[in-house]
Structures are given as C-alpha cells and as structure tokens.
Amino acid sequence: MCARxxxxxxxxxTRRALTGTARRLFVEQGYPATTLAAITRAAGVTTGxxxxxxxxxxxxxxxxxxxxYADLARRIATRTQAGSPPVDRLLLAGDEFLAxxxxxxxxxxxxLDAPAALGYERWSEIDERWWLAPTAALVREAAxxxxxxxxxRLLAVALLGCLTTLGREAATAPAEVAAAYAxxxxxxxx
Length: 190
Fold this sequence. Notes:
Helix content is 80%, strand content 0%.
C-alpha cells in the first residue's frame, strides 16, 4: 500500500511543479510570451491551483527569481571553503554570478525579464534580500580596517550594482568581465 502524501507535501509538490514549469517556459519563450494557461497545462494543474499559491504571473515570476537565486546561493556555498579569505569568497561569489549570466537563459530571466516585469524596485528588493546582507558581511570582514555597518552596506550595494551591470555585459562579451569585477573588489577594499 502506498503512503498518501500529507497536505503540506502536496502543496509543496504543486508549488515546485508550477515554479519549475514556469521557469522552463519563461526561459524558452520569454516572460511576456508565456501565458498562465500554458504554465498550468504544462505543469498538469488547474489555474485555480496556481492562483491558490500566487496572485498572478508577476508573483509567480518573483517566486521563479527566488528559485534561481537559491540555486546560485547553493552553488556558491558548495564552492566556498570554510576559512578562506573573505576577498576570495567575494570574488568566488561574483564569478559564480557572472558565470550564470553567460547563460543567456539565466541572463534574460534575472537581468531583463524580471526587472521589466516586476519593476526595478521590486526586483531590487528580491536581489537585495538574497545578496545584500551576505555581501555586506564579507565586505566588513575583508576590510583592511574596521568599518561601520552602514559603510559595509553601501560598499556591498556598490559591488552588487557592479555585478548586475557586468552580468549584462557577460551575457554578450564574457571574456573581460571577471577580471573587471576582481579589480573593482580590490579597489573597493583598498
């Protein structure tokens, strides 16, 4: 006899099916061309199930962006060695982000479609929720002399802005981008 899944397990499975399908379709077709009907049909769920979890297509896109960032955070965590210098960890995180941006599907989703569909402010909030605190902590740790929390936050904002801009460049001309980010990190922490 098969064990029946609990309601929380079914809910989680439905959310995963919808975000995974939406991510695939947003990448293949672009966010503007992807309909909710296409997502629910491909995921094998009803439109009502989608609306049970999200208010609409924009909210689903935000969930997909969170998933992309979660995947990226896991990749960074698996590559970061405990005890490695904070500058090295900043550079590694930047390298991972820029490597993701070389993939046009990822770049389109997180650097073009998400800011356009969600609006710059909402997209920035998601971006900062994932990256600002850890980047500021690394900046504070890497600084050659003690700095205030506000200064480390501002330097982290500068590095994240640099990465976003370089990420757009990486999508079209990746060769020089990692070196440019490394130079910026070293200049900011000098």
